[in-house]
Amino acid sequence: MEVQLSGRKILVLVSNGVEEAVMSAVQRDLLKTGASVKTVGTETGLVNSWNNETNGWGLYFPVDQQIGQTLGSDFDALIVPAGARSIQKLAGNPHTARIISSFITAGKPMAFMGDAVELLAKLDMAKGRNVTGPERSHQILVAAGASWTGDAETVDGMLMTGEGSDLGALIQGMIAHLAGVNFEEQQVAA
Predict the structure, then answer these.
(1) Could you tell me which residues come within 8 angstroms of residue 33 by beta carbon, excluding any fewer than 6 positions away?
(2) What are residue 113's phi and psi, to 5 degrees?
(3) What is the pLDDT of residues 161-186, one digit of tens each?
(4) Is there a contact between 81 and 12 (Cβ–Cβ < 8 Å)?
(5) Which pTM was predicted?
(6) DSSP count for the chain of H helices, then E strands
(7) Which of 7, 70, 132, 137 sees the fewest Cβ atoms within 10 Å?
(8) Coil, helix or strand for 61?
């Protein structure tokens, strides 16, 4: 049984440098759930992904809305895909903190994939949260006041973080989280 997100409006927050493989998989798998997926970016029109396999710029992805014209209240859930360059640019944009804060205040589900968890530290939103991510993010999050679990995935209330080495499992867990389903229970039911 696949988890469905029909009727849910999902905001995927990106900038130039988002990881190509992650962004491709997120879009493909979310569309299969029936969700309405909107890519919101710091750029207008297109974002240029980063291809980790070639260590260079990758595919372009269309941007549905510019970050300055986006309200978190218009969406049911937030996803921030991995990509160090993307996270750096998002951290420098004041609208990023506004959008993430609106999700936190409203208690809406959020998923930060791989090194995207560092965005919480850069925006001073990590303190007191249980998080995980790639090992290279560990010290950054601990220094920002987060508790590091070291697990493949961690759910802390409405916030899900994942280290991302098994992208398929992370995305399935993320979809279950956005649907409000305990992923382990979903696996047993299947």
Answers:
(1) 2, 3, 4, 5, 6, 175, 179
(2) -100, 130
(3) 999 999 999 999 999 999 986 544 43
(4) yes
(5) 0.93
(6) 7, 11
(7) 7
(8) strand
